[in-house]
Amino acid sequence: MAPVTPALLADIREKRYARARGAASHEALAGLTLQLAAGELVALVGPSGCGKTTFLNIVAGLDRDYVGQVSLAPRPDGHPARVGYVFQEPRLLPWRTVYENIALVLPPDRADAIVRDMLTAVGLAGAQDLYPPQLSVGMSRRVAIARAFAIEPDLLLMDEPFVSLDHDTVEQLRELLLTLWRARPTTVLFVTHDLREALVLADRLVLLSAPPAHVVGEVAVSLARNRRHSGPEIELLRDEVLRHHRELIGSAAARASQ
Amino acid sequence: MSSSAAQRASWLRAFPLAQRIGSIALLIAIWQLTAEALHSRMLPSAGAVFIELVRLCADGSLPFNLGITLARVAAAFLVAMAVGTAIGIAMGRSKTLDVLFDSWLVLLLNLPALVIIVLAYVWFGLTEAAAIGAVAVNKIPAVAVTLREGARALDRSYSQMAQSFHVGRWRTLRHVILPQLYPYLFAAARSGLALVWKIVLIVELLGRSNGVGFEIQLYFQQFDVTGILAYTIAFVAVIQLIEWVLFQPLERRAGRWRP
Question: A149 touching B, CB under 8 A?
């Protein structure tokens, strides 16, 4: 068997944001190293504003102004890896229909079958001719998820895709994400500041520090997914990680101040 | 308001075309009555102008000159929109270009149309290209300023989405960038057409030997107000028709996604 190459290997030594003239630049990431195995669903957990979106934009190739390197395993056919991105807001083009929004990211000759398939998979087969302003927030997120899965991504980046939604909608969307992921296995990097959400979804949690962000700990979640929704197990796990996580942040801060 | 008045008002709202026709009929009636009262060669009656209009159409001179003028309007309009849009987007996206050329735009905006026309004829001769170029140059800065606003208002999050999904350059332009610029393009096109057709008449009057502007000059020399009004009415009607059959349907189509 060939040696298993990681689906994603990211080593960001430094990422700075220039400030307006004169002011010192802001260091967003420092020594953030992350490795994902193919097919893994990893949650990147960190406090709000710690640089999670910055990191995703670097991995997605949207931001090339950093020191370090990002490498993605090529596809089996030798083509470069495809990266799907579910942004924090759905980012659907309001002037294009649901159908056209998904078709936009696909090769035109194959688009039709894939779009129909994906819309059925997310339960929106009847909504293909609607424009995004006509959709509910939950439906918009479904379309954004469908668009990301439509390109058959080798790596799926999700940037807090379920924030500011009501509890029931979030539950449904998480369930949908897991269903899609089982049917279309891919490597997922799911960013969230919600520890409970991370524990419900992920195989592994990677914990980030306050800025400049770096990895301060990892937690493998071995509990079967169907036992994670409620019950004492998930709460125990959450309390343990939270205790652990606080310690880790504390020790990192202590190291930095020395 | 009495109920019958309210009914009448809602009936008028329901038929905007009826309002328009009523308003124009009123104007024609006032014109006709004034002309009959004055009984002067300087203000021919609406009927006389209509008869002249029919005669000019029948002998082919009005359709010919109107066609030539409209062709010039179309050429100058398209050049102005294309060049102005390109300049506007470039200046909206690049701070360097904006700093470099902003003063030029202000200068051009303040240059009287007549100066540009005269200079174009002096420098490039009394040619078709000089005529159309002069009209276009009059309009380009206004188009550029409008589209610069549009380019500045482009939402980067959509461009990021297109970039991360590797949507190609052409598809990004067509599906992501241009739809955001449509309101600005329509605003520029509207005011563009209104300005261009007026300046085309002056260009024709000064340096062309056909077209509506040239004909109006001939009538002016003969103090023939009937001919001037006949041409004016035909021209204004055609321009309004363009607004109705071209701009408004296009704008509705571009805005159909709005809730």
Answer: no
- Count of CB contacts below 8 A, A vs B? 52
ipTM: 0.86
Express each pLDDT in A155-164 by its tens digit.
999 999 998 8
Other Cβ atoms closer than 10 A to A83: 24
Question: Residue B65: exposed, middle, or buried by beta-carbon count in 10 A (0-12, 13-18, 19+)?
Answer: buried
Give the integer Cα–Cα distance in Å for B108 and B243. 27
Closest CA to B131 of B227, B225, B78, B203: B203
| Chain A residues within an 8 Å CB radius of B165 | 84-85, 104-105, 147, 151
pLDDT digits (tens, 9 = 90+) for B171-192: 999 999 999 999 999 999 988 8
The answer for residues whose C-beta is within 8 angstroms of residue A177's C-beta and 6 or more apart is A145, A158, A201
Kindly state whether A62 is in contact with chain B, defined as any CB-CB distance less than 8 angstroms: yes
Give Cα A40 distance to the centre of its chain.
12
**Domains of chain B, with CATH numbers?**
64-254 (1.10.3720.10)
Cis peptide before A212 (omega within 30 of 0): yes
CATH class of residue range A8-80+187-257: alpha beta
Contact (CB, 8 A) for A199 and A241? yes
CA–CA distance, B75 with B197 (Å, rounded to integer): 11
Of A61, A87, A133, the CB nearest to B161: A87
Compute CA A185 distance to the chain's CA centroid, rounded to the nearest angstrom: 15
Average pLDDT across chain A, whole number: 86
**Backbone phi, psi, residue A158, to 5°:** -130, 120
Strand A41-45 versus strand A187-192 pairing type:
parallel
CB neighbours of A71 closer than 8 A, spacing ≥ 6? Answer: A8, A9, A10
CB A144 within 8 A of CB A86: yes
Q: What is the identity of the amino acid at B127?
A: T
Q: Tokens 């807090």 appear where?
A: A160
**CB crowding B219-248: b at 16 or more within 10 Å, else e:** beeeebbbbbbbbeebbeebbeebeeeeee
